[in-house]
Design a protein that fits this description.
Elements (H helix, E strand, L loop, with lengths): L8 E6 L3 H13 L2 E6 L2 H10 L4 E5 L7 H8 L8 E5 L4 H10 L3 E4 L4 H24 L5 E4 L2 E4 L4 E4 L2 E3 L3 H11 L5 E3 H9 L7 H15 L9 E4 L3 E4 L2 H4 L3
Parallel strand pairs: 1-2, 1-3, 3-4, 4-5
Antiparallel strand pairs: 6-7, 7-8, 8-9, 10-12, 11-12
Length: 246
Amino acid sequence: MYVNEAHMKNVLIIEDEREIADLLEIHLKDLDCRVSKASDGQKGLQSAQRNQYDLVVLDLMLPKVDGLEVCRKLRTEKRYTPILMLTAKSEELDKVLGLETGADDYLTKPFSIREFIARVKAIFRRAEAMSVLSAQEVGTTEIKCGDLVIDREKRKVTLAAKKIELTPKEFDLLVTFATHPGRAYTREELLNTVWGYQFDGYDHTVNSHINRLRMKIEKNITQPRYIRTVWGVGYRFSEQEELTKP
């Protein structure tokens, strides 16, 4: 079977359980991915910093350097690489820590290969969509919404000149809203647009990210200025004239 190497994705698996790493490699290669592997956090971090990858599959519990620290250090790099975090722990705290540190998504072990592949495809689709959007809007990397300024190229957000720290998904969610002010999104639309996959029962993912985003950018979360609830539908971003009102 002919494979167009120009369209192949480069994926790094940082996983110390060899059987899991080998299994993921097999299925990623079925997606026409070039796969590299590292068995500890130190080697994985070095590989991710030296090479360009379309995705890093990162285990949370690793020898030498743990997954959270690898994620933190990768997020200080200028080049943005999507991260799918794997964790054997099911506690909500570990998931939140991973997302706050900068992971784009996470899977809790044991997980099905079907769901793993769905998440990987979703990350690739999202990255390609953002790339197309950036290419279409060259020269308009900065979005200004009242006191809120979003720099898409630097993935930086400031509110009244103060930097706001957002997770990758919070940033993508905010950009989706800000580039379509006034449009009402259902939770399902946001899930498909920002996360890129369709699964029943994931509405809580959207709700929790909206709540956390509001806590970071809204002065009063009970009377949000930027992200407004559209009852019976979902959410929308304020239009410019609404933001200029006192």
